[in-house]
Write a structure and sequence with these properties.
The complex is a heterodimer of chains A (509) and B (164). Chain A is α/β, with parallel strands linked by helices. Chain A folds into 4 domains: 2-95, 3-Layer(aba) Sandwich (Glutaredoxin); 118-327, NADH-ubiquinone oxidoreductase 51kDa subunit (Rossmann fold, 3-Layer(aba) Sandwich); 330-420, Roll (Ubiquitin-like (UB roll)), CATH 3.10.20.600; 425-508, NADH-ubiquinone oxidoreductase 51kDa subunit, iron-sulphur binding domain (de novo design (two linked rop proteins), Up-down Bundle), CATH 1.20.1440.230. Helix content of chain A is 42%, strand content 15%. Chain A contains 21 helices and 16 strands. A 5-stranded mixed beta sheet of chain A has the order 2-1-3-4-5, covered by helices on one side. The relative contact order of chain A is 0.10. Classes of the chains: A alpha/beta (509), B alpha+beta (164). The complex binds flavin mononucleotide and iron/sulfur cluster. The site of iron/sulfur cluster (SF4) has 14 residues of chain A, from α18 and α20. Residues 152-156, 158, 180, 182-184, 269, 271-273, 306-308, 311, 487-489 of chain A line the site of flavin mononucleotide.
Chain lengths: 509, 164
């Protein structure tokens, strides 16, 4: 009997040496005439334990991590004896508290098996949402999504059902589903993890969205910084096509859906949905004036449903399990589960999926385990580069869109970047302005020019030149950016800047 | 990045790619990626051929090439080293890592080492934010890269390292 061993092929696992571990494993196994079956699974999102090696042992999966190539001989020795004595032994994977304490819906399958195995996907409820959708009318699918309370996971948290209904109700000869896989926020990696670990879930979500709104074509707009996700998606699409999940006769239903990946070219603004559409049309990624809404006039002027990776993925759960099941998770108007990504200076970083409503402090303390450096944590930037820097006093707010908005912050895509006490908040504020200057699409003067002015003003504050007057000037600039910008790039750049100034004034002279 | 294009001249490669993408809707970005994948950059002299093939103005094609950070109008070094400049990596010391890279290589962002081995570029997030600082070399991503680890990576990219 051969020993089945799992070792992730995920970007972060490989960046930490998983390929070297795999090579060492195969070499040692052949030296010892040990028969092993190596599965390159996706990651379970416990990045602090990657490379995480798992094996099937007495009917359950046991884990070791983080494993390096040099650990392999000792590990194979330990397996022959008492595995639990090995220094890297973590016990049954499912019982690791970090994982056990989560409530995984969208990421339930992540890391369990070979991401490209259709049989594996199907064995874990894969395509249940699609099969259900094939039995329903388009309106019934849309109603299910509306009633689930599902909101967009890309940052703006707009109710998905309203968009689906609009696209369904807009007649056109060609409609499109566009997946926003631009994931530009620093601290965010949930989209990448999902695409690498469970690509069929995204594909399924897009197909059933197509059935719902009457779209027969879909594009995944993927950022060029994700080469592994690109390979996985392309391979998964080819397999799905071969097995008639994509094409002109989906599962023998006579319905069509065609899907292709398009790669971005290194522009943060192309995550904004209308700039993304321009980019998909082969143009510069310039933000469009709304209205018209993309749901009415989107890609090539046609009705287009644009959603984040996680929104489309969550739709499979909504359809498979029903709106009521999904509604049951969460608080207030934030229904379902939230995917937090613990990043930056954090000891136990990775992906934490929980119902909305938990506090940030609870997540940082229970899952994060303090800073990586061992120094006190000073600030957390929540929701990406346009999000606020939060001091300790704000960590008890429940993780919920409205509660975060009420304190001048945002949850965004759920990336949480932790900084220890060596951070200088004026430098961080300066970076926010600099990033805006680098990534602005250039359409609005405040965003294009004001951001560069912002860098200069902060430089003067840092140099202690008339700090009081320059602080005033900086706040004025923030007002101008907020009021004179067409999109949230310029409109929200003031959020990190103001929060840094307001909560950490001691760093501004 | 290939240096030989199956016996084709640069013009022939471009003509072939233009042919391939001219009827793809919104095909300009995929075309530019394909050309850059083949020859390593978008030769300025090819703008006219691309424009006429896709029925665009030269200004439009040029505008697209210059808008996106990924597209380059001149060849890069044999390897492209990108250092993440975004917040998660900042929190783990990427500013020091950037300075170290510039000093070690003797070039700034956008530059290529004199031996043609390495081009240095900034990148804003590689999606590896739980294990920062991150760098990308060609298509591989490396996690928890400190100055010493970067030195090892750089050494493996120089001629001596490559011939091993
Ligand atoms: C500057 C900027 C960058 C954005 N980047 C992303 C992104 O990387 N991924 C994403 O899904 N949404 C991003 N968005 C939000 C999109 O514009 C849009 O709201 C989203 O794709 C809609 O999908 P959802 O309803 O599923 O959230 C960005 C918005 C702005 C203003
Ligand atoms: S705010 Fe900035 S990024 Fe947004 S449309 Fe205006 S110039 Fe473009």
């Amino acid at each position: 009997m051969s020993l089945r061993i799992y070792l992730p092929g995920d970007t972060t696992a490989v960046a930490l040496g998983a390929d070297e571990v795999a090579a060492a494993l195969l070499e040692q196994a052949s030296k010892r005439s040990l028969s092993i079956e190596l599965v390159r699974n996706g990651s379970r999102g416990m990045f602090y334990l990657e490379p995480l090696l798992e094996m099937e042992h007495q009917g359950q999966r046991i884990a070791f991590g983080p494993v390096s190539a040099g650990d392999i001989p000792g590990l194979l020795d330990a397996l022959a004896g008492d595995a639990a004595q090995h220094a890297l032994y973590l016990g049954a994977t499912e019982d690791i508290p970090w994982l056990k304490g989560q409530q995984r819906l969208t990421f339930a399958r992540a890391g369990l098996g070979d991401p490209l195995s259709l049989a594996h996907y199907r064995s874990l409820d894969g395509f249940a949402g699609l099969e259900k959708s094939l039995q329903l009318t388009p309106q019934a699918i849309v109603t299910e999504v509306t009633e689930s309370g599902l909101r967009g996971r890309g940052g703006a948290a707009f109710p998905a059902g309203i968009k689906w209904q609009t696209v369904l109700d807009t007649p056109a000869s060609q409609k499109f589903i566009v997946c926003n896989a631009d994931e530009g926020d620093s601290g965010a990696f949930a989209d990448r993890l999902l695409m690498e670990a469970d690509p069929y879930q995204l594909i399924e979500g897009m197909i059933l969205a197509g059935l719902a709104v009457g779209a027969t074509r879909g594009y995944i707009y993927l950022r060029s910084e994700y080469p592994k996700a690109l390979d996985t998606l392309n391979a998964a699409i080819a397999i799905a096509q071969e097995h008639a999940y994509l094409g002109d006769n989906i599962c023998g239903s006579g319905k069509s859906f065609h899907l292709a990946v398009r790669v971005g070219a290194g522009a943060y603004i192309c995550g904004e949905e209308t700039a993304l559409l321009d980019s998909l049309e082969g143009k510069r990624g310039m933000v469009r004036v709304k209205p018209p809404l993309p749901a009415i006039e989107g890609l090539f002027g046609q009705p287009t449903l644009v959603h984040n990776v996680l929104t489309l993925a969550a739709a499979t759960t909504v359809l498979a399990k029903g709106a009521a099941f999904y509604q049951d998770f969460g608080v207030g108007r934030s229904r379902g589960t939230l995917t937090l990504q613990l990043a930056g200076n954090i000891r136990c970083g990775g992906l934490v999926e929980l119902p909305y409503g938990t506090s940030l402090r609870q997540v940082i303390e229970e899952f994060g385990g303090g800073s990586y450096s061992g120094r006190p944590i000073r600030a957390i930037q929540a929701g990406g580069p346009l999000g606020a820097y939060l001091p300790h006093s704000m960590w008890d707010t429940p993780l919920d869109y409205e509660a975060f908005a009420a304190m001048g912050a945002m949850l965004g895509h759920g990336g949480m970047v932790v900084f220890d006490d060596t951070v200088d908040m004026s430098t961080q504020a300066r970076f926010a302005m600099e990033f805006c200057a680098v990534e602005s699409c250039g359409k609005c003067t405040p965003c294009r020019i004001g951001s560069t002015r912002g860098v200069e003003v902060i430089d003067r504050i840092i140099a202690r030149q008339e700090p009081a007057a320059n602080r005033e000037l900086l706040l004025d600039l923030c007002d101008t950016l907020e009021q004179g910008s067409l999109c949230a790039m310029g409109g929200l750049t003031p959020m990190p800047v103001r929060s840094a100034l307001h909560h950490f004034p001691e760093d501004f002279g | 990045m290939t240096r030989e294009w199956g016996g084709l001249s640069i013009q022939q490669v471009i003509a072939k790619r233009v042919q391939e993408y001219r009827d793809v809707s919104g095909g300009l970005l995929p075309l530019l990626h394909a050309i850059q994948g083949d020859i390593g950059y978008i030769p300025p002299a090819s703008v006219a051929a691309i424009a006429s093939g896709l029925n665009l103005s030269r200004a439009e094609v040029h505008g697209v090439i210059s808008f996106y950070h990924d597209f380059r109008s001149a060849p890069a070094g044999r390897h492209v080293l990108q250092i993440c400049r975004a917040e998660a990596c900042q929190s783990m010391g990427s500013r020091e890592l950037e300075a170290h890279a510039r000093n070690t290589l003797g070039i700034d962002y956008g530059g290529t080492t004199a031996d043609g081995a390495i081009s240095l570029e900034p990148v804003y997030c590689l999606g590896n934010c739980a294990c920062s600082p991150s760098v990308r070399i060609d298509d591989s991503i490396h996690a928890r890269v400190d100055a010493a680890a970067l030195d090892v990576l750089i050494a493996s990219l120089t001629d001596a390292g490559e011939s091993k």
